[in-house]
Every structure is written in C-alpha cells, then in structure tokens.
Amino acid sequence: ELVGRYLCLFRGDATFGLVHFHPAYDRSVIHPLDKPAYGHLPPTSWLRPILKKGGALEEAESLSNEELLLSNYQRRAPHTAINFLRASQLTAAAGPNSICDLDV
To answer: What is the pLDDT of residues 78-88, one digit of tens each?
Structure first.
C-alpha cells in the first residue's frame, strides 16, 4: 500500500499503474472495503453489478457468494509481488468500459 500511496503522492499514477499479488490475497480485507483500492480488484460487493453491466444477467443472479469469492485467485501468487504497468497498458487492458459507471 505504501508504494501506491507514494506513486499517487508524486503524481506517478498518471504514468504508471500497480497490480498487487499475494499468496493469500483476499479483497474483503483490503480497505476501503466498498470503494476501489488502487492496484486491487474491485470490491466483492461490486461483482454482481459488473456482471450485469457486462450483460451476464443470469450469472449475476445464479452465482453464489462463495463462487464470487473465487475472484481472489486471480491475484494470488507464490510470492508477494507488485506489477508496475505503464498507463497505456492499463488503458489497453481496461478498454472503454469503466467500473466507475456501475450502479452499486
């Protein structure tokens, strides 16, 4: 978290982005719990609205909470790591859709 705060403090977040990895990654213990956290997955409570926005209405309703928590595995790694990405790479990966437009 310290790296992300300093990156924002010195306005490096316009040039670089972070992606956090950890062997026991669990988004439900990362603060803020119900808001985006720089370099982390969206809050677990946002997953159903994200699915709905993407047109996966049936999945949004049918997946259990336990199944939604499996999303943590995409940020689990054998060792703690921070992936530094250029802003252009983040834009290319995210595409034109923003999670900021969600109705949560």
So the answer is: 999 988 888 77
Cα 78 off chain centre by: 19
Contact 104, 48 (CB under 8 A): no
3-class secondary structure per residue, the chain: CHHHHHHHHCCHHHCEEEEEECCCCCHHHCCCCCCCCCCCCCCHHHHHHHHHHCCCHHHHHHCCHHHHHHHHHHHCCCCCEEEEEEHHHHHHHHCCCCHHHCCC
Length of the chain: 104
- Using one digit for the tens of pLDDT, what is the confidence trace for 33-67? 998 888 889 999 999 999 999 899 999 999 999 99
Question: What is the radius of gyration, based on Cα positions, of the chain?
Answer: 14
Q: Give CA separation, 8 vs 13, 29, 34, 41, 91, in Å.
A: 5, 21, 20, 18, 17
Q: Give the model's pLDDT for residue 3.
A: 66
Task: Say what the pTM is.
Answer: 0.75
